Task: structure prediction
Amino acid sequence: MSTVDRVRVQERSLGWHERANERIRQSERLRALLLAGPGGLWLLLFFLLPTAIVFAYSFAHRGPYGAVAWAFTLENYARLFDWLYIRVFLVSVWLALLTTLICLVIGYPFAFVIARSPRRWRNALLVLVLIPFWTNFLVRTYAIMLLLRADGLINNALQWLGLIDRPLSMLFTPFAVVLGLVYGYLPFMILPIYASIEKFDFTLVEAAQDLGANAWHVFWRILLPLTLPGVLAGSILVFIPSVGAFVTPDLLGGGKVVMIANLINQQFLTVRHWPFGSAISFVLMAIVLAATMLYFRIGETRRI
Amino acid sequence: MSSLATAQPATTVRKKRRFSFGWAVLNLNVLLTFIFLYAPIIVMSIFSFNASRQMQVWMGFTLDWYARMIADERVRVAAQNSLVIALVSTLVATVIGTLTALALERTRFRVKRMYEAAMYLPIIVPEIVMAIALLVFFNLAFSWLDQFFGLRLNFGLGTITIAHIAFSFPFVAVVVRARLADFDRTLEQAAQDLGANEWQTFRHITLPLLMPGIIAGALLAFTLSIDDFVITFFTAGVGSTTLPLEIYGRVRRGITPDVNALSTVMLLASIVLVLGSLVFQRRRSF
Amino acid sequence: MNRQELVQRWIRDWQQGQLSRRELFRRATLLGLSSFALANLFAACARSQPTPTPASTEASPSVGAIPDYVDRSKLDKELNFYNWSEYIDPDILTEFQETYGVKVTMDTYASNEDLLAKLQGGATGYDVIVPSDYMVSIMINLGILEPLDYSVIKTIANIDPENLKPYYDPDNTYSVPYMWGTSGYSYDTSVLGEDLASWKEVFEPRPEARGKVVMLDDQREVIGAALMYLGYEINETSDDALAKAKQLLLAQKPYVLAYSSQNNDDLLVAGEALIAHIWTGDALMSEQEKPTLRYVIPTEGCTVWQDNLCVPKTAPHKYTAMVFIDFLNRPDVAGRNANYIMYGSPNKAAREQGYIDQEVLNNPGVYPPPEVWKRLQWIKDVGEEGALKLDRLWTEVKTG
Result:
């Protein structure tokens, strides 16, 4: 082909490429819109907008009988720089971290076993994990209290077995609160990890074993890194609600374990100081959001 | 691979034994966890037969509470409402959540980072804040709609369902996304090379492979909805009571065992459903 | 023996003390009798015995009839009642429906603050609400209550004058008393003896009670009790007084098993708590399950509170709401309600006409004699500054 013809062919193909690219970009945009649209719209309308209103509240004054009086002020945020409130934040984060860790240690092996069990049993096992949570939360919590009481079933059993002579004080302590939180959020850890392990290619494991890796190596070097998305997802889904729990610390902690959400509730309901309550909420959200982003950043760098 | 294994039989045997110890520990963990999960439930069921109003002391066997529960119309209506709301919100939340997960993992658009952060907000925001925010918002929206369109809407099952969808679809998205990450795209590419268009690829390759994640997400959404209290309380209207609302309201006067009875019945119903689906699934290979 | 005779025999057994009231109600309910029917039977039994009943002088139309001062044409077909949970005998709602032809839908809330938050957030559709004393005063100030129509609520004449004209609504313009009670404490006489009478037992407990004290999970109640023990008024907010109260509460904390307004009765009955800061109704219920418990109104005083029937301005069925309130204050209806709920009824006519349980009437914890009334104090709104101080104090105590 002559040079001129070649150039002409190239030009035409260039034009064709550009048009194709444009079409691809357009269809990608359309796809993005279709996929992200519903979620985004719902979020915008029924979440972001309401939250923005509450954000506005945090800069307002308390009305004479509670609720809100509109006048810009930063006093609500200023009030938070107080060891009294900072300590509550720290306690909440600590208890939530503990809960997440315990859920991870229990939940990962659990999800592993389910993911490796015969196909037709998997869904049933998953549902069996969730069934206790289709009963009422309050009833479950009361049942836990029944078990943990000084005169409760666990203490009675331990005493009968001769393992202790005086009842253990388990209820109305931080221990009970963590137990209750672990109980309440374990499925949130199990489900994402399960989803992640289930699609894992186990031939990789066989290959590794044949190369001489022991079980620990297989887990630490292969399984865990490749199921990290599930672990991260589960951790987030446990940590965040734990840090914002209020019924569990209230009931199982006997009102003696105060977490952030208890404080927020107090502000919104008892003191009726909506602005301060909003301010506490937003500081909580900011901290948690920062932690989440950090966590994901770490997750991204640790991936193979 | 198998030839390699048989070439070193001693190693294989050793590995097998170590592995079976590991498996014993794993299975023990599963057993203990199930006991942990079900112990309070069993206690709750036992006390539904307790012949005493208080839940702390056993005073004898009785079926009174079951009778009372069946006769209790408030509880029946509440249970019905809870179920309807949970089913509808699970359906919609699962769809929206899956779409959102796909959007986050498979597409690029400019505000994606912000969208991602925003999606986590419903998980992060304390329930009481979201509850009050929604109450205020719906109120403003209703009065606005009334003013400009003459459309008189009110709080009720609809507002509750909308709220439930809002806080549960991010959970679905997170779970499905975990599954989508590291998804083996070569399968989809192979399908497309063989001539399938986008929709066909999605329907026959992506979706089935995604299904366990979607199901996991749906179960989560259902669980969240059926047991929610704070947000439901503030978005409920006259006469639209759900089970958590009803039970929570009774707490002040003390929960009587008829609530236990109801929970036990719900528990048994769920277990029966599960066993039923297990039998049903034997015919289909899922 | 037919059902009627069976029940009559049970009633006789109960009057002779061979059957507890609870057991009687349980059997009657199992038989399928509504409390309405049971009450009629009670009345029938009472009439057949020579017990003198004071002549009724109040406006109490015979059971089952609509009084003539009610305009039937103005009644709606339905009514929305927003009430505390288990705070009305459900048979009374059915009776109202059968008598007046109005269907009552009841929704419930668990605290005054929840109620206020919903109304302030803009929820409408509720016709009758039941706020407590201080909440009524807040609602009046917010202007969300409708003045009551006393041309319809004639039965207000049945209410005890002691309960009328409270500080929060001096002319009863917006509220009619519904139930009232106090917040003292209950304790186990079998362990601690019969003669406990002061707040000291709660704040500086004896050795055997340490670690077994339960307090209400309520800022105003707990701080109020501390203030009263120290000799102050319950609504005191001076820094001095609050500092002393804080000291007392922090010193008490190691002996407190839990701060709980819901489980205190359970813990008492189970024996895990020996003393509990508690409301009258819960105290009564726990006494029924464990007769060795005794409720005390401490010598230094305690809070008195009163729940009231009110009508929000946004009520869609105002006239019917007033009629409902009138109905609830008929002596027989009020009496049956009080017996079911087990709180103090402000309805004097119900007490005098024998509609209220004798054993409850005789309980000085529920119906204290006049000299004890002087020790009772109302919790009042203390303004923003005071509220913030109290809130901070409470947070310090609970996290300390």
Q: What stands out?
A: Chain C has 18 helices and ten strands. The two ends of chain C are 64 Å apart (CA to CA).
